Amino acid sequence: MKLYDAQAPNPRRARILIAEKGLDIPTEELSIMDGENLTPEYKAKSRFGLIPALELDDGTVLTEVPAICRYLESQYPEPNLMGRDPIEIAQIEMWERYSEMSGSQSVGEYFRNGFAKLDDRGLPGITGIPRIEALIDRGERRIASFYETIEDRLGDSEYLGSDRFTLADITALCAVDFARMVKHGIPDGNKNTERWHAACSQRPSTKA
Amino acid sequence: MKLYDAQAPNPRRARILIAEKGLDIPTEELSIMDGENLTPEYKAKSRFGLIPALELDDGTVLTEVPAICRYLESQYPEPNLMGRDPIEIAQIEMWERYSEMSGSQSVGEYFRNGFAKLDDRGLPGITGIPRIEALIDRGERRIASFYETIEDRLGDSEYLGSDRFTLADITALCAVDFARMVKHGIPDGNKNTERWHAACSQRPSTKA
Predict the structure, then answer these.
(1) Among A68, A171, B43, B114, whose CB has the most other CB atoms within 10 angstroms?
(2) Comparison of pLDDT for A130 and B151, the residue scoring more
(3) CA nearest A138 in B: which residue?
(4) Which domain holds residue A8?
């Protein structure tokens, strides 16, 4: 197996899962800034032009983080990160998706639309998408809503998707750390989120 | 069980899967136009304010279409719609996600940002998101890219996620039918997509 990797929040989700499972998968790092994910060579492997991608020994290439993670979970079931029974599996998937769609994607919207180097690349994996000024503000509103929702949830539950650390936390952590990097850290007074963030961040896997 | 339903492309994904499996699940229909998904009562059940949601007999509420579908697939495995082995499962998930993120969401972006009745509701499940004129054009570009990618894929494969009809096709079909409704039908000459669309559309489940 080989992981196509980059310094970005989405590949980090896969790296943390791989580290939690103690796997040693060779990686090839590409530069999103330099558009190395958009070359014909890379798109011949990873059709959507997205990173990460997992190339299997038979040449099959899997993309999309949850699909990659579900494959790895099936091959290396322990520690379990995606649920042990149908209801837990569904709840982890719910919170994982929410953390991507309302967390990572909101921060991405804020960041990409305000960053001149990504002109024409307002969305991942596709060119010809101009930056849109109004999306900087929209991204900020969405980040605020994401923080509010997870603060509320983390008042009821120690972790996001379940009562233990799972892929939902990995994705939310990557979203929050991405937000912190672009000066939208956890809002003051969000004590549940602070507690959860500290607990997640002390896991060695999250250095990935 | 009970399904919270609406006349919209996302709940249709769940309805088609339910019909394929021959299940008879009672539904309660809400109006997205009237904001019935955003009331405190509904959000107490479905925290993200999204439809569909599946309420189980013990009161647990599952949201997010793939999570709902994976739960139903675990309880009613036949006909299989989400994969029979780890690689097929991952490939179906890849194409299902792509069809949502680049298909349904692109059409949604085009539609919501051009539709005065959804002012302040430029994104699902959240208010205070103004419509943005520039997203009408961006949505159109993304729809074009989606059509190009699936046309290419359907030249290699009879169906999107596998060699048979799966959840990936359900999600892509709902995206394409939503696009057709807003005058962005399958581009002329996309013969693979036409063939696939006709094959999917003749299944009785897709009347759902």
Answers:
(1) A171
(2) B151
(3) B129
(4) 2-75
Among chain A residues, CA nearest to B130: A138
Give yes or no: residues A36 and A133 share one domain: no
CB pairs under 8 A between A and B: 106
CATH number of the CATH domain containing B130: 1.20.1050.10
Do B94 and B194 fall into the same domain? yes
Strand, helix or coil at A69?
helix
| Residue at A81 is within a domain | no
- Cβ–Cβ gap B145/A122 under 8 Å: no
A93 and A33 assigned to the same domain? no
Looking at the partner chain, which of B70, B128, B130 has a beta carbon nearest the beta carbon of A90? B70
Q: Does residue B141 share a domain with residue B38?
A: no
Contact flag A56-B87 (C-beta cutoff 8 Å): yes
Q: Last residue of a domain, which of A18, A47, A75?
A: A75
Measured between alpha carbons, how far is A50 from B166 in angstroms, rounded to an integer?
23
Percent of chain B clearing pLDDT 70 (strictly above): 100
Rounded CA gap, A118 and A127, in Å?
A: 10
Nearest to A65 by CA among A155, A119, A108, A5: A5
CB pair distance less than 8 Å for A71 and B90: yes
Q: At what angle do helices B9-20 and B167-181 cross, to 10 degrees?
A: 140
Prediction ipTM score? 0.96
Which residues neighbour B3 within 8 Å (Cβ) at sequence distance 6 or greater? B11, B14, B15, B18, B25, B26, B27, B28, B52, B53, B54, B55
B-chain CB neighbours of A91 within 8 Å are 60, 62, 67
Q: What residues in A contact B60, CB-CB < 8 Å?
A: 87, 91
Residue A103 sits in the same domain as residue A193: yes
Q: What is the pTM of this model?
A: 0.97
- The answer on B97 and B118 residing in a single domain is yes
Residue after which a domain boundary falls, among A75, A101, A135: A75
- Using a CB-CB cut-off of 8 Å, the residues of chain B touching A64 are 93-94, 97-98
Per-10-residue mean pLDDT of chain A, 208 residues long, equals 96 98 98 93 93 97 97 98 98 98 96 89 88 94 97 97 98 98 97 98 96
